[in-house]
Design goal:
With about 450 residues, the chain is an alpha+beta fold. Helix content is about 40%, strand content about 20%. The strands form six sheets. Strands 10-11-12-17-16 form a five-stranded mixed barrel. β10 and β11 form a beta hairpin. α7 packs antiparallel against α9 and α10 packs antiparallel against α11. The chain is globular, with a radius of gyration of 24 Å.
Length: about 450
Amino acid sequence: LVGSEMCIRDSIADVTHYVTRNGVLDKEAFKRGTSVYFPDRVLPMLPPALSNGICSLNEGVERLTLSCLMQVDKSGKVIKGRIAPSVIRSRHRMTYTEVTKLYERDEETVKKYPDLVGMIDTAVRLTKILKDARSAKGGVAMDLKEAKILYVDGKIVIPEYERTISHELIEQFMVLANETVATLMTEKKMPFVYRVHESPSEEKAKDFVKFLSEAGVNVKFNPAKVTPFDYQELLRSLEGNALYPLVNRVMLRSMMKAKYSAENVGHFGLASECYCHFTSPIRRYPDLAIHRILSSYCENPDADAMHEMYDSFVVEASTRSSDTEVRAITIERSADDCYKAEYMQQHLGEIFDGIVAGVTDFGFYVALPNTVEGLVHVATLPESDWVNDDSIAFKEEQGSACYRLGDTVRVQCTKIDVNSGNVDFALVDENGNLLGNAK
């Protein structure tokens, strides 16, 4: 703390010190693009000797780092920022659970980390300031659960998703550092790898407006010029409303996918004019590329020299990183589906409450609180002419039955295929009796 301002140093392992440009490690990292994560293992972008060894900020040992130093005022605005090579020695290596318990004054955790109590309190204060500042700018906070699959003693465990103050703390600090680094390099007109999230296309925004109107939601924005504020205000207006989960999911579908680019077009979801990924060079190539650019800049900030070295590189790195990200997400989700299916084998025949999470031409998907999703196939529903209504609702063409995104339904787990990752559900009534043709 400095008066009414806070000074923050976000130090990230200096991976580029060990992974030199166009070296064997760099070429392989470029090829992989990212680490790929499974519940029981990781396919790392870099060798474990680096990712788990010399580049890991282990407790009590000195490590080479790049630091983003920021001075933040009481409104959450960065009034001064700079980047510098550094060496740090971590005092403690903690878990999300420990940080949360420390903030909540858990007696055992306070005894273990008495030197961190004041710092955590200050960090949480700043987290709330940064969160409010992001919200004031129009940042869109999507209420989406992430799958958490654990492999414990040979068994698969899928607990319900829990988001604590420690998760928010890390998220807000990383976003702040990413935005500050991108802003500093943009101001210097340096070649760079941006994380961009374009505004929704007019066509998708119009479809979203049409859906909202049909759902009885008053639309207050122009689909040709939709802003983050528009989406933020819409979600706020529906808090506590039964339509909230449905609107939240359809809103996500209306958005563009984030990607990497050598051209800065801003980040719609974060309401940021300038953003990047700087904080994970061990596991993501775009972060590694940015660290390389920053290290070169710190050695020689000459703009002409920087452009000569990196203009073509940032284009190649952006394209490759976007492609490998999509590939990794697809692989991870497919693997997660198989793990979830294996987990559900022990729950075959059990009954759950879930929400309609997706609609297809052959039925609809239901998501459980632990993020497991299963298909309610049209063949298990009562005999009727069922139709897919714009992937928002699965309904009878002539009758009144309708299952819309976000609706709560009760289902029984009826079939599982671990190899494909497919889980089948069937609708049941309040007494647990199967409905329709699933009987």
